[in-house]
Fold these 2 entries.
Entry 1:
Amino acid sequence: MSNNVFKTQIKEEQVVVNEYLKTYFLDNDNKFEEHLADAMRYSYLIGGKRIRPIIMRQVCQAVGGRVDDVIEHSAAIEMIHTYSLIHDDLPAMDDDALRRGQPTNHIKYGEAIAILAGDGLLNYAFELMLDKSLVTGEQKYIQATKILADAAGRKGMIGGQVADIQSEGQAVDADVLSYIHSKKTGALLRAAVMMGGVIGGADDQTLGLLKEYGENLGLAFQIRDDILDVLGDEATLGKPIGSDEKNDKLTYVSMYGLEASQKKLKDLTEKSVELLEDIHGDTSFLEGLSMYLSIRQD
Ligand code: IPE
Ligand code: IPE
Ligand code: MG
Ligand code: MG
Ligand code: MG
């Protein structure tokens, strides 16, 4: 698939996802609820590539599932991802003022409301996934909910954020770097892949391949993020460049340099395409996605 054909397809996916994301936060009973909803909606709907929902939809379809079955869980992972960004930007963490091309949540609403908006998104994600599980009574939705609970938690994204913060300014350590990347970013991307597979009804062998694919993709994604923090254009990226250097972060680029990082990204991308080729079903979109993510500018 050419890059231009792929760009059109991913835009179509983004439009579909944005349509259903817009339907949340509408039922507010008083001015306090409305204020919180405003802050939650702000970061959730302001922009973003919607990569995790799109991956979940595409994996579900590739393994033979119905794409509409992932609506609630894909909205939920985007809520958890968005909350992680709101908190990541706080002065106590990366202290950044620009996100998704707009002032960060705490710049717009103040730190207290930004913290609560993040908390609100985290809880809302579980409300949605549990409602879907209860209404359908289907085990696969409970399984997918559990995957996200684990991936977002102390042994997943939050654990990775702790390691990221605690490694600021520390001596170089390859194992710690790999731990940070596989948890802070890899965990949610892997979860998007696995949830799509589980909801789509993939068999165990396919789930095994998907797990490895998700691991490759997650690492590649964060390496590109580290590269863009150095080489990116702020207006295109929609977030500050140089944030990692400012905070003395342990990143792929700080440890291995730009050239080796590019090489690793290329290798991981090729590997993830190979893994997709082994999966029965139409994985052409996902193959295009791996290529696109390795050269993305935002
Ligand atoms: C940014 O994620 C934070 C990381 C985990 C690297 P994205 O690059 O997916 O950000 P959005 O959702 O498009 O804003
Ligand atoms: C973010 O890593 C990971 C999470 C938000 C969980 P970064 O701190 O590198 O993400 P950006 O570059 O601010 O988006
Ligand atoms: Mg960070
Ligand atoms: Mg950050
Ligand atoms: Mg970054």
Entry 2:
Amino acid sequence: MTSVALVAVGDELLLGDQLNGNGVTLGRALAGEGFSVVGHFVVGDDIGHISRAVRDAAARADVVIVCGGLGPTQDDLTREGLAEAAGVSLERDESLEAALRERFAARAGAAGVTVPAMNMRQANLPAGALPLANEVGTAPGVLILVNTRPVYALPGVPRELDAMVTAVVLPDLRARFPERPVVVQQTIRTVGLWESAVAEALAPEVDRTAGNPRIAFLASGGETRVVVTATGADTAAATALVDTTIGVARTALGSAVYDAASLEAEVVRLLGAAGATVACAESLTAGLLCGRLANVPGASDVLRGGMVAYATSLKSKFFGINRLRLFDQGAVSPETASAMARGVAEECGSTYGVALTGVAGPSPQEGNPPGTVYGAVHGPSGVASQLFTLPGDRAQVRALAVTSALAMLRVALLHDARPRRRR
Ligand code: ATP
Ligand code: MG
């Protein structure tokens, strides 16, 4: 496969002031076209560092794409870095100079306006390089050969980079490398399994496929996505490879796999299929669970409502938990979670009640460390509670608590939907 290496230029990227979003844009665009991105280099605004990175990238890949540092200011040094990498000097390009003068004249509304010397730097090009048209901004791109590899330098401004990737770089790459494999990708979502458990279940398939399809495991927010990417001579060949692996994954992962676009959408779908409704009783999440369900179009068919009982006293008031018993068992306990789930289902007249009570942090509560969360689901099969020990800061604990509750509700719905055995 044709390989591409990226060089992102900018002190702001190294200092952490700016995410390398251009790397994301380029990675996606190139992977989708059947190119293999083999590395990202990030360097500061320094001629020596830029030229070294460009030379290293050209030694490792068939194509190099540089972004940033093409502007008019002193810290925009990509032109100089490219010249050094190619071992040539910078020269004034007459067509670029004319275009700059025209642009300044148009802006000032008068001919013969002097272009500031700093801006004139944008008319410089390494000897032998070709300017690339930038229809969206002032900084032209640059195409130059380094070590016989094409090196495209693009502006750092994301809007300008996007436009040039589409209008200039991809068409040129397609023409240079007509024989590219077709890439087909499919994702399945899982919930309720650790990333390592998902990976272990698919280890034999990873071995069997030996890299095509490539199987990636992406864990975030309490869920794990399995991304299957295949390359083939044509779409049919690549699709066949993906389909086979997706089939194996579905079998290996069983009920952990769901098909909706999100976990909350899956829960809404299951509730709808069961003709059931749900209500939420929330303490530490204070409405986030209800809110996530309400995000799903069509939630009104299944979501009855919810109750937020943040203060301990409201837990006894809203859910009829005896105050002395609440004192004994604690606000953060399986008994309280269960009583909240049962209480909210009764109060709201829903088939299911889901409850969350726990410690979001940063300080412990009732001797429980942050991240201690009890979830409970009350439904036709009775009530079940579960302890979750969630990692992260306050925001993460609250978000993971919602995901955990949705996962519990999903399990209850799947269980209750199973055909009953006759006695
Ligand atoms: P300009 O003509 O604006 O100077 P440039 O090619 O010199 O263009 P930079 O000065 O490096 O580009 O960056 C311009 C803007 O684009 C900045 O706001 C910067 O934060 C943003 N930017 C630069 N590099 C990236 C990147 N890799 N990902 C996302 N944004 C970036
Ligand atoms: Mg700049």
